[in-house]
Amino acid sequence: MTSPFANPNRPGVPPRLPTPPTGWPIGSYATYEEAQRAVDHLATEDFTVQDVMIVGVDLMLVERITGKLTWGRVLATGAASGAWFGLFVGLLLTLFSPEPGVTVGPVLTGLITGVFFGLVFAAVGYGSAKGKRDFQSASQLVANRYDVLCHPKSAEKGRDLLARLAMRPANPSS
Question: Could you tell me which residue ranges the General stress protein 17M-like domain spans (predicted)?
């Protein structure tokens, strides 16, 4: 019998294609941190953690707004991004230069060119949005709860270990 927790072509490697989770539930937690703590406990107790998976249930995409976009912020970010790329290209040019030692010319040329193109691409991108998205954000995929599933052959032992963990008070420092 093959394990539903591993790729049959390469044991110990998760499948490449989206595959629904299988196994029996041995714990359910409100936060990912609690589910991680449960799996850490199983690992500490020498449980075969390769038989375990954490499954986020009722997924939500949360977009937290981090700031307002302005022309100044967009151009400054574009210039900084272009400067880093230009500096990188300039340093590569000096590595392959026939002249010995680091010369300032290719580095300075790469830096100035990078800043220019960074400004242009940032301005074109922001201008084409026409004010439809004048904010910065960070997205995060979160779940309403996190279930710990286990291969059926080890589920009873896993439930027993997690029940003992639930009896102990949570230690925030561990």
Answer: 26-99
